[in-house]
């Protein structure tokens, strides 16, 4: 891992902050160096994996913001950068605020996901930052936190006016949340193909900013929304509240784990299939299997996918009747009973 190559160039520190997707290896390495480690993560799945390590020197914080993290107290920050310039800059500013003066930063990101621009931003923020490792399409850089004040960044939620299911809608999102800047075309297709009647219990699986669940709730469904991302959960809560549904349950959940004991009449989902610039179907397959577990008898799954994605065989592994509820040239909404 390029991040660890960079981290090994830094002198040891007693307090280490680790953050970013896939930071578990960096957290374990820092613990082996004798540090007290805080892993600040957005993903419930990642938090569960880190907690399962049962390392006494590892504190896992699953949250969307910097609440409870004390500025100026960390000796080292190990940062795996997510895709997106605004999110990368926010995390680098956050690391600067949490590091003590003289504290060291090691950050790494994929070359295809803007790491060069992130290193330039770090150079401007910290006064200097240099690439010290290149491995597997990743660049890693190190920097030293200079003296001065570095305030913790605000979460940066942005409100936009959009139209959902023909209704003017307030969308509240932030960098790091899927489709935070507008209505995703796949979500719009899912809403168009979704069949739900008043009183039905609907699970919005992988809720993002909450627009699919909002559309279902406007049609009279009793909605529960779940997402693996703490940022997405907070965005959904804010979007639903801004549109008149502040009491809707919105839960952090790795797949259907948080609602495993409940039963729903309908599950609606727009599963991701990208991993970086590649294609990966693990999440979609888990969502399909999870939907089958939480649906009541005769319950229905509505899943949207690009037309070139062949999800029908996986759907038929778990459902007795599979059909197309809606499609156009780009998207297909599957109904599975």
General form: elongated
Radius of gyration: 21 Å
Q: SSE order in H/E notation?
A: HEHEHEEHEHEEEEHEHEHEEEEHEHEE
- Weakly predicted, low-confidence segments: 274-279
What structural class do the secondary elements suggest? Answer: alpha/beta
Beta-strand proportion: 25-35%
- Please count the helical segments: 10
For the termini, the CA-CA separation is: 43 Å
The total beta strand count reads: 18
- Main-sheet strand order equals 3-2-1-4-5-7-6
Please give the share of residues in helix.
25-40%
What is the average of the pLDDT values?
94
For the sheet with most strands, the description reads: 7 strands, mixed
Describe this structure in words.
- The chain has 337 residues and is of the alpha/beta class.
- It has helices at 2-7, 24-32, 44-51, 85-98, 115-126, 185-193, 211-218, 230-242, 282-294, 312-318; strands at 15-19, 36-41, 58-62, 74-80, 99-110, 130-135, 138-144, 158-164, 167-173, 201-205, 222-227, 250-252, 264-269, 274-275, 278-279, 295-306, 322-327, 331-336.
- The strands form four sheets. The protein has a seven-stranded mixed β-sheet with strand order 3-2-1-4-5-7-6, sandwiched between helices. Strands 12-11-10-13-16-18-17 form a seven-stranded mixed β-sheet.
- α4 runs parallel beside α5 and α6 (185-193) runs parallel beside α7.
- The longest helix is centred in the first third of the chain and has 14 residues, at 85-98.
- 47% of the residues are buried.
